[in-house]
Write a structure and sequence with these properties.
476 residues; Aldehyde Dehydrogenase, Chain A, domain 2; 2 domains; 7-stranded mixed beta sheet; 6-stranded mixed beta sheet; 21% strand
């Protein structure tokens, strides 16, 4: 599978080869653009937006999105196979991701049918007499989006779908490791009737060209999904007036109280911690268990981890596949060994199975200063810590400069609401894991975990402006 450049007046500056993270086999390739190609893409996008007489009517956007949803469904197995080959997420989870991608398209359509401007009250005082005011939604302008590798189907839809629905032309740059899914999906948008200029997929092998693309003054909105280090750096370089949203990671905490239903919560926590080998921005990482039940939590999670089948993501019964790069296995192994040297107790796992696979790992009472306690591990490792009073657990959960989704497991409503009030998080899950998400809910990293709010309706809103009209007439 090979994707050439599809930008007017652009030439290839090289080719990125894509390999399976599981076995290293080649799965495809994508041509890269150079500085001239980036300028051509920006010029194409800016010109199509500047021509307001030829903006895509809403009914055409709806029709395109409807056709895209139907085509994704019809070609689901092919898209799943591509995503597994380049991203390594197991088949069962990738199928769920594809279903979510289809639903995300439908949510975009629903936004077009329901989101609207509002009337602004007038005639409330003498100065506002004889006036009528209302707002109308318009596209914010050209969008540049940079995406991550871990959800190669649904993340692209979360960035491209709202842009097209809002009426914004978009340039999408997928992750270097997983460009094939993005290029396949953009191809489907074009096949569904979207003009080429309204959605351009690009691959870039030079960070300076990436910066050229997103810092251009013609860009109205920048959407980024990736690491905090890169996201905050790029935000600092945006042109004046460019709005943005940044989705980074976290070190998601879960508090388990003495009255929690362990039979129900532990399988959910195991899923939330080891889903996609822990390579999710809200993966369960820090578990604070009351001292009276900590032993049961440790033993229960160890049993669940040991039952997981780790291996070929294309196998239908595989629970956990590879990390995206071999060097990530090296890093996770190093962090775990360091934690053990700093007196963490290894309960299960802690060993690489191959160059790409690492065992689901449970650590008990790592040092508060260990990397596994301080930073996002982005690997299949969960850490369990004992606590005596819930305030102690909350204080430790809130101690890091990250705040995204957190969770509390308890059968007491007052305890649940107390945690909801005091946990520093944009979302607090009650009797669920931190990685739960549906695509119409707000999804926001706070502190160093991000900027702005994700989720289809919220991204759709961010990619629009509310333009106000004020009518002055003696007839009013």
């Amino acid at each position: 599978m090979h994707y050439p450049i599809n930008i007017p007046n652009a030439k290839a500056s090289g080719i990125i080869e894509v390999f399976s993270p599981y076995d290293g086999k080649p799965v495809g390739s994508v041509e890269c653009i150079d500085a001239k190609g980036a300028e051509a893409a920006l010029k194409t996008m800016a010109e199509v937006f500047r021509d307001r007489n030829n903006w895509l009517p809403i009914h055409e956007r709806i029709a395109i999105l409807e056709r895209v949803a139907l085509t994704i469904q019809a070609r689901s197995e092919k898209l799943i196979a591509i995503a597994i080959a380049e991203g390594g997420k197991p088949y069962s989870d990738t199928r769920i991701e594809l279903v979510r991608a289809i639903d995300s398209i439908k949510i975009c359509i629903a936004c077009l049918r329901s989101e609207r401007g509002t009337e602004i009250p007038m005639q409330l005082n003498p100065a506002s007499m004889n006036r009528l005011a209302f707002t109308h939604r318009e596209p914010i302008g050209p969008v540049v989006a940079i995406s991550a590798f871990n959800h190669p189907l649904n993340l692209i839809i979360h960035q491209v779908g709202p842009a097209i629905a809002a009426g914004c032309p978009i340039i999408i740059k997928p992750a270097r490791e997983t460009p094939l899914s993005a290029f396949s999906l953009v191809e489907l948008f074009h096949e569904a009737g979207l003009p080429l200029a309204w959605c351009q997929a690009v691959m870039i092998d030079d960070n300076k060209i990436t910066e050229q693309l997103l810092t251009d003054k013609r860009v109205s909105f920048f959407s980024f999904i990736g690491s905090a280090e890169v996201g905050w750096m790029l935000r600092s370089k945006l042109a004046r007036g460019t709005r943005c949203s940044l989705e980074h990671g976290g070190v998601a905490p879960v508090i388990i109280t003495e009255d929690a239903d362990l039979e129900k919560i532990l399988p959910l926590i195991a899923k939330g911690g080891f889903y996609h080998a822990g390579q999710v921005c809200v993966s369960v990482q820090r578990i604070y268990a009351h001292r009276s039940i900590a032993g049961k939590v440790v033993d229960g999670l160890a049993i669940l981890a040991e039952k997981m089948k780790v291996g070929n993501p294309a196998d239908i019964d595989t629970n956990m596949g590879p990390l995206i790069r071999h060097r990530e296995v090296d890093r996770v192994e190093s962090w775990v060994n360091e934690a053990i040297a700093e007196n963490a107790r290894l309960i299960t796992g802690g060993r690489r199975l191959s160059a790409s696979l690492y065992q689901p790992t449970v650590l008990f009472n790592p040092s508060a200063t260990s990397k596994v306690s301080q930073q996002e591990i982005f690997g299949p490792v969960v850490c369990i810590y004992e606590y005596d009073h819930i305030n102690e657990a909350i204080e430790k959960a809130n101690a890091l400069p990250y705040a995204f989704q957190a969770a509390i497991a308890t059968q007491t409503i007052d305890t649940a609401l107390y945690a909801f009030k005091h946990l520093a998080a944009s979302t607090v899950m009650i009797n669920d894991h931190t990685a739960f998400r549906v695509d119409w809910m707000p999804f926001a990293g706070l502190r160093e975990s991000g900027y702005g709010t994700g989720g289809i309706p919220y991204t759709f809103r961010d990619m629009q402006i509310e333009k106000m009209a004020v009518i002055h007439s003696a007839a009013l």
